[in-house]
């Protein structure tokens, strides 16, 4: 969908230099050279690569393209799409009548950047933060990944060791392994809140009236693999084997147990980058995270009231639903939609992102966005962080942007925390819904 310009928007024509027309007979070879392969072996002709798709003018067009099993990585301002696709995907997209060009990235764009934080380093930093701020930081392990790594949750409040009766806010990061800037966002949130307590009036008050959960990396196996070689591996999924297939991994953000696989918004092919798994919550990491959220219920009431799931890239603030284009529908009345929209637009005012319903891009199903709201009643958002184009690094922007691009979300995070006691206050309906 067309998006208004903002300070980080690319100028017209900047994408032109990236284009290379595909020669059909050489399609596999071209794609194999565009990105990291997602495996530790040399690129093969059936490996996914980055393509630009033209002719998709509507959300329905984009949904049709996503239904082939590709990952739509960006909707560009001129309406073209950047997508990660296999040669078979490209053949199917071409048969649907859309144009496809290969995108050749410079080799240096895929070199791992030591400025990003590995999973062992995340654990070290969390432990150090808990030691420095023992009253403010409580850590717990809510499960193990498929490969046996601890899945860590961090609770931040003025008395973090005690589970108090307060509104809770959830921040999740790195469901998709190839999005390392989201992990840096988690570290920034934790540092901002702990350092601000006692010196910043707003943060101090929030820590005295809220409990904040930060899950800094929900897919550590994928992250470790993505950073394991001398080039980024462009790995999105988990690393758990799929029975009956040589393909590894499930797309965590298509594996959630609300309208799973309902609406042509995910793939049933284990080879696909958007593979939804063989059943809802079949991914080890999704089941653990869902159990963690369900475990925050007390006396039959979910204590988590608001949440953000951080992703890259595209600079968007998205809200549910993703499985339908409808705003008011089964599971979403007008006041509920208006609350999501108003909060989304408020947060976008300060970070410069584009606010919109998730399905305005294209249909997705089995997403955390939809599950958190429909199953748990949590007002929630997906942030697609910097950059707004592939020109600025795509999934792997240089690490020298980390400080600026994480600080860019300080005010939205604080805004969401501020409304956690009663999200409906933003539409003036606190008496109706919050007693």
Automatic annotation (TrEMBL):
Cofactor: Zn(2+)
Keywords recorded for this protein, A-Z: Carboxypeptidase, Hydrolase, Metal-binding, Metalloprotease, Protease, Signal, Zinc
Keyword Secreted: no
Signal sequence region: 1-42
Organism: Nocardiopsis coralli
One Pfam family hit: Peptidase_M14
Molecular-function GO terms, alphabetical: carboxypeptidase activity
Name of the protein described by the UniProt record: Zinc carboxypeptidase
Lineage: Bacteria, Bacillati, Actinomycetota, Actinomycetes, Streptosporangiales
CDD domains cross-referenced by the UniProt entry: M14_CPT (cd03859)
